[in-house]
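tool_log.txt
---
The assistant was asked to compare two proteins side by side. It first ran the structure predictor on the initial sequence, then on the second. Raw inputs and outputs are pasted verbatim so the downstream comparison step can read them without reformatting.
(1)
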Amino acid sequence: MGLASLTGLAFRRVVTMSSSPVRGPFQWTVAVPVVTFVLMLGTWTWHEHWLVLAAIGVALVAAVLAAVHHAEVVAHRVGEPYGSLILAVAVTVIEVGLIVMLMTSGGEGTSTYARDTVFAAIMITLNGILGLSLLVGALKHHLVSFNASGTGSALATVITLASVTMVLPRFTTSGDGLEFSPSQLAFAAVASLVLYGGFVFTQTVQHRDFFLPVSSDEYGRVTGLLDADDDDHADPPPASEAMLSLGLLVLSLVAVVGLAKLLSPTIEDGVKSLGFPYGVVGVVIALLVLAPESIAAVRNAARDRVQISLNLAFGSAMASIGLTIPTIAIASIWLDGPLELGLPPTQMVLLAITVVVSVLTVVQGRAKAQQGLIHLVLLAAFLFLSVKP
């Protein structure tokens, strides 16, 4: 064999090795969660210099990408709908911690921070994640299909949760202003837990098949179920790798929220200097925290698994309300000051329009790119009116 042949063979081996998944300790998806977590701890008490803030911003993006990778590994191991449920709950639990942390620090928007962040999460998931997933999936595959029964029950749960926790306080008379009275807040918290727990049981036990990816014909009509555990014919990762990814997923999400917390004073200063309302801070934080779910949803939509994208969108909205409100209700025992959950008129109108459009989108069980575009326009309206109310 000549030198050229040997060189070509060596090159092909290098390319093959570089294109195969690396499972060693120096893989970037293993290193990034650890490095970003250490950076978060190291800069927790000192992060005023612009170079440090720039490093935090870069680390935040890297942590988001690592979280998406590990979430997909775990999802591939456990299958749907457990994978999307794990990511939604993990992100929301840490989001709740961030909300409580910022509320305890005091400040101008403490009384409305929980409401602003949760409502932003609802609009981002129902219009941003849902709209982008439908747009990407439909542009690539002409039509996208999903199970209207499972997705419809998820949407109904989100609508009920949002109405009970953020619309009713606008009209009740027992509390002051836009607040619930203590007994009303306790009822809303219990109702939120019951609804969320009931949906999780429905999604994972009673009617799991309603939340699995579906196959369809050329007209988008559902013809059956896809093998949700068959990720492009790749074998599921071993249990040890899935457990490692689960731990690194949690570490990545902690880093995402912690780094977002470190950047929040800079965001607050920027919002104030631009003359924007304080509620914009909650919108920015929600965008950062929901980035892993957004990327994962779009990637699944591109692979024609829009059902998983919808599971992520509605599951995230549901968990954001169903876990946040009970936690805030308990934390309000120790937190000083009012807790305003009632939505102002503009946000109530946006929520009402979003509900109507989402119902029209879901009831068909299939969607074109136009539906995705409509949801994205609603998200743009929400973002614009948050800046210019």
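(2)
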Amino acid sequence: MSINHLGLLGLVAIALLTIVLWLGRRWREQQYDLRGKTILITGGSRGLGLVMARQLVAAGARLAICARDEAELERAKTELVQQGGEILTLICDVTHQTQVEQMVQQVNEHFGAIDILINNAGTDIVGPLENLTMQDYDDLMQLHFWAPLYTTQAVLPGMRDRRAGRIVNISSVGGKVASPHMVAYCASKFALTGLSAGLHIELAQAGIVVTTVCPGLIYTGVNDHALFKGQRSKEYTWFSISESLPIISASPEKVARTAIAGMRRGAAEVVVPLPILLMARFYGLFPGFMTSLLSWGSRLLPGPIAGGEKRAFGRDSHSLWAPSWLTYLSDRAARRNNELPVQEPKSAPEAEPVGSREQ
């Protein structure tokens, strides 16, 4: 047989294997029916959490969504009920274990057992290392590590008794690849990624599947709710424009679909979109080279300033370039996904500790 024939057979074999694997994934996803399932989503009132809620309602699930802001929750509930969903909203600061336990009890009393937990609540603190404080690290660890652990511990007894349940932890590519000017954020997401992977390994024998979702940049419209330090307007500008770049940034609808599909087939990890998956794999193979590139890239970002430790919300950090046509995708998403700032408690002139802000 000629070399050309062998090469052709190899290509055919690869194509067939790809098709078989794809069909297998689709079959596993279809085997897990979401109709009638009770799902708790933290940070479900806006952004990615709200987009996932829309898709889960369309699939026939019953939803409990929590957040700190009552008005945001009511707007989200109104939309989801109009979509035909059975919705329970709860005001909860997920960084407080007692509140989390009370919330889970309320969901159990209203709907019965929680079949799926989606830990989505999160926020960004963006700024140079020199302007970060210990409070920044503590707040993000509370929100991105301890809060998912609190909710997980609260739902585990029921899932263990039934020997069934699914948990989805929305981490980040920042939990796999460190990013400049997001050190506290990345540290907390690395912790969540490790926690989630460990839970997947140990809970499998109890019939519970844990999926870690690591998206890259998403244009959810969260920019005005994120927190900025240092040269805040400049930090807001690069962050906002980056989150609106086509190809590099993904739509929340795509991330939500991919995350839900991964949960349904029982995937251990989902990294989305494809360029981010490739970057994460490349980092795993060549960490020294990637960190060198990122180190050079950090030199292009705004430097620290005296007094830059003070936090400001994105809505108070606008610049000539952001918002602008360069941030169109994110600005449009803000209007769609309940992200537009309104005159409510979050409009305080100074940014308070993070609490359970949603991503």
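---
observation on (2): The two ends are 57 Å apart (CA to CA). The chain has one domain: 35-347.
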